[in-house]
Amino acid sequence: MTHHEARNFMKELGYGWRLPFLLEIMPLVVNEDVLKETVKVLGNEWVWLNDKFSASRAWLVSFGSGYCNHLSVDIGYIYVRAVRCGQSS
Predict the structure, then answer these.
(1) Going from the N-terminus, what domains does the chain have, and what CATH number goes with each?
(2) Across the chain, what does the average pLDDT equal?
(3) Where are the beta strands (DSSP E) in 35-89?
């Protein structure tokens, strides 16, 4: 889906769901052992992030390669991974 569709999808999921931020994802990407485990669970597709590079470009990350890049928000073949803020006990 496009970045706009991804953000709308998060709204449809309801309160607390959102796209992940770049600073949340980078520890997974730079740690090779964690990245390998993440790929086993999440796959290796490109995933939209919450962060925008500019008005027309948003950040995305590939769990397969560990690369992070920005792309036009109008590109429609990028995957989405929803994250949710939970309450600590």
Answers:
(1) 3-84 (3.10.100)
(2) 83
(3) 46-54, 57-62, 68-72, 83-84
Length in residues, the chain: 89
Residues 46, 62 contacting (CB under 8 angstroms): yes
Residue 32 has pLDDT above 80, yes or no: no
Strands of 1-89 (E only): list them.
17-18, 46-54, 57-62, 68-72, 83-84
pLDDT surpasses 90 at 8: yes
Q: How far apart are CA 40 and CA 44, in angstroms?
A: 8
For residue 89, pLDDT beyond 50: no
